[in-house]
Specification:
The protein is of the alpha/beta class. It has a single domain (2-96), classed as 2-Layer Sandwich (Transcription Regulator spoIIAA). Helix content is 36%, strand content 37%. It has 4 helices and 5 strands, in the order ββαβαβααβ. It has a 5-stranded mixed β-sheet. Strand 3, helix 2 (52-67) and strand 4 (72-75) form a beta-alpha-beta unit. The radius of gyration is 12 Å and the shape is globular.
Amino acid sequence: MKAELIKHESGRNTYALKGEIVNSADFAFLDACIEEKLSVHLDLSGITYINSSGFGGLVEEAMNFTEARLELILSGLAPGIRKTLAVLGAEELLHFKD
């Protein structure tokens, strides 16, 4: 997976993600945002696949952001992937903006 910073505004970074999310370590770049007290918007429109490890990493990061009192907002997820995440209960754990 590739993450590209596409927008930096006061208190929030926006990243465009592309490719496949297959490892929880794919989200390691978000640790710096938490340290800098920045909320994050992830544009997932370029994501073609996410496996269980990737999903676990996303949930873990969402919990880290919640604990730090920051927002992690997701948008642009393909309908099929979004449906799978909904079946897994992601609607309660992740914040989607569509």
